[in-house]
Design goal:
single chain, about 450 residues, alpha/beta, Carbamate kinase, VC0802-like, 8-stranded mixed sheet, 6-stranded antiparallel sheet, 14 helices, globular, binds adenosine-5'-diphosphate, binds aspartic acid, binds magnesium ion
Length: about 450
């Protein structure tokens, strides 16, 4: 069993959808094909949802109208026969009637999440009908029948496996099983999602649930690059990564993978292969438990970080102090990314600022608080990198003109993390590219 996930750009144009139909048909054996929404759709659905929550019905309607036109054009190009063009038009009209119904009703958070789910629901239905037109034997398996998260928004892997295995067993004669990425049901049985970029996570959860041979993530680039290609011009693909390395890169901003993708794959030791839909011959990146050690593999950056500094000459050395600090973050379900301590102060970083005011309000009991927003974590990743001789010297040589706010090395053997103001991100990534990879 293979899991093949295709992202937004891979399904974003009719000719790309046709190409992936060919690709999955030519790949031997049974596979679960996980599809995202067409590129740009989820962004538009977010915009529509925000308009509706903000009572801007007209702006929402204008967005819905232009999205509908996009889909109407899409189906005209996707299907060849009049028969299937009519099926395509029916799908589009049904989805947009439903979206307008959602928009016209009492629009709350629940309807918002239902609206966000429409992108993957429509893309998979259109793709399934395209395979039907091509007389390719396939089935559409609704993700909402098996994918679920608990009250802490964590996927319920065992329950997912318990539901999915019998479904797949009943489809043994079907080679191509299509399902939606990103969407799931929550503990109230409502439609929910695995957060932006979550289709990668769907693929790895399915891979783990079915103990697949391999999880393939097909996207618009030839694998994980050594640096962020959106920021740095000269980047190169990395051919192999360990699960730990890939996990750190995904968590710290390498957008090619949803931050949690590697976790289920690593748990069941299922290799994850990153491949390029636009260039299927390119080797891509293989992520597995076998990895070359002693190298600096890649750099990633995570924006939107807030640093909180707690200064307390009285309390920091007292035992139990850090526990009290951590308990505040735990109460507000806010994960901490980086931490550094001295005798009189502790600095922590968070990316979820939903409860920032409540958290700082409570931390004030312990000392004086300073908050810095618009920070970026730059993360340098490689097997056992933090123990490598001379690595810190090279990193700091690259960053000598940049005001470094925090450093964390040694916490994880595979990463060195540096906190800098976001305005210095580009400069830092370029300098590290030159100093660590010789790429100018
Ligand atoms: P998809 O729609 O297929 O899920 P994404 O846009 O989510 O695709 O992810 C692919 C994008 O991730 C690439 O186009 C690239 O700009 C970005 N990216 C960020 N960091 C990296 C990296 N280190 N290596 C490769 N791609 C990266
Ligand atoms: N369509 C969703 C998003 O844009 C999920 C994904 O593409 O992975 O976030
Ligand atoms: Mg993605």
């Amino acid at each position: 069993m293979l899991v093949m996930k295709f992202g937004g750009t891979s399904v974003g144009k009719p000719e790309r959808m046709k190409k992936i139909a060919k690709l999955v048909t030519e790949t031997p054996g049974q596979k679960v094909v996980v599809l995202s929404a067409l590129s740009g759709t989820t962004n538009t659905l977010v915009a529509i949802g925000e308009h509706l929550l903000g009572n801007r019905a007209e702006a929402a309607e204008a967005e819905i109208d232009s999205l509908e036109k996009h889909y109407q054009n899409f189906v005209e190009e996707l299907y060849q026969t009049e028969n299937f063009k009519a099926i395509g038009r029916e799908i589009v009209s049904r989805f947009f009637v439903f979206m307008r119904l959602l928009a016209a009703g009492q629009f709350d958070d629940k309807s918002y999440r239902e609206l966000l789910a429409q992108g993957e629901l429509i893309s998979t239905e259109m793709f399934y009908q395209y395979l039907q037109e091509q007389k390719i034997n396939a089935r559409l398996l609704p993700a909402l029948h098996f994918m679920s998260i608990d009250e802490n928004e964590e996927p319920e892997l065992e329950k997912i496996a318990g539901r999915l295995r019998p479904l797949i067993a009943s489809l043994q004669h079907i080679d191509i099983i299509i399902t939606q990425g990103y969407i799931c049901r929550n503990h109230r049985n409502e439609i929910d999602n695995l957060k932006r970029g979550g289709s990668d996570y769907t693929a790895s959860l399915i891979g783990a649930a079915l103990q697949a041979e391999e999880i393939q993530i097909w996207t618009d680039i030839d694998g994980m690059h050594n640096n962020d290609p959106r920021v740095v011009n000269k980047t190169v693909p990395v051919s192999e990564l360990t699960f730990d390395e890939a996990s750190e890169l995904a968590y710290f901003g390498a957008k090619i993978l949803h931050p949690s993708t590697i976790v289920p794959a690593q748990k069941y030791n299922i290799p994850v292969r990153l491949k390029n839909t636009m260039d299927e011959k390119a080797p891509g990146t293989l992520i597995s438990n076998k990895g070359t050690s002693g190298a600096c593999k890649a750099v990633a950056a995570k924006d939107g970080i807030t640093a909180i500094n707690i200064k307390s000459s009285r309390m920091l050395m007292a035992y139990g102090f850090l526990r009290k600090v951590f308990e505040v973050f735990e109460r507000y379900k806010t994960p901490i990314d980086m931490i550094s301590t001295s005798e009189v102060a502790v600095s922590l970083t968070i990316d979820n600022t939903r409860y920032l005011n409540e958290i700082t309000g409570e931390l004030k009991k312990f000392g004086s608080i300073e908050v810095d927003t618009d920070q970026t974590i730059v993360c340098i990743v490689g097997q056992r990198i933090s123990g490598q001789k001379g690595i810190l010297e090279r990193v700091f040589k690259a960053l000598h003109d940049i005001p470094v706010r925090m450093v964390s090395a040694g916490g994880s053997a595979n990463n060195i993390s540096i906190l800098i103001p976001s305005s210095f991100k580009k400069q830092a990534l370029l300098a590290l590219n030159e100093q660590l990879f010789g790429l100018i």
